[in-house]
Structure formats: C-alpha cells, structure tokens
Amino acid sequence: MQPQRLQPRSDTPEMSDLMWGALALMLVFEGLLPFFSPKGWRDVFIRATQLSDGQIRFMGLASMVIGLVLLMVVRG
C-alpha cells in the first residue's frame, strides 16, 4: 500500500500566489512616497547616496530582520 500524497486544500492560497501578493503589496508601499511627495522622495535618495556602504548594509540588514520578525508575529 502506497502512502497517500497530501493534496493542497482548495481554500488556502499556494505559495506562489502568496509571493506574488507580497511583491504586489511591496510595490504599492514603495510607490506611496514618490506619488504623494516626489520632492521628499528625491531628498531621501540624495541623502542615501551620501551614506557609506556600511550604513547602507546595516539599513538593509535591519530591514530584513524587521520583516522576518513581522512575518513570525503574523504567522503566529
């Protein structure tokens, strides 16, 4: 007797659907500042170009850690 394969439940989204949804939501959030405040967006990038590589890496690391913590909190 062969083991039965688990079938995905029809009421839960697939991982690829979740990833596309997450990407779409990220793009919406990323577009808010340039849409509502183009000058503010430009100023942020001017200041970002003046940061050192280490500062930019730290901001990227902090962003990833915060995102992972939020995922763990949301997923329970």
Helix and strand layout, with pairings?
Blueprint: H1 15-36, H2 38-49, H3 53-75
In short:
It is built from three helices and no strands. The chain has 76 residues and is mainly alpha-helical.
Structure, described:
The protein is mostly helical and 76 residues long. It has one domain. The protein is 75% helix and 0% strand. It has helices at 15-36, 38-49, 53-75.
Instruction: Say how many strands there are.
Output: 0
The total of helices stands at: 3
The overall average pLDDT, rounded, is 88
The coarse silhouette is elongated
Cα distance, first to last residue? 36 Å
The chain-level structural class is mainly alpha
H/E element string?
A: HHH
> Helical residue percent?
over 70%
Tell me the major beta sheet. Answer: none
| Radius of gyration over C-alpha positions, nearest whole angstrom | 19 Å
Task: Give the key terms.
76 residues; mainly alpha; elongated
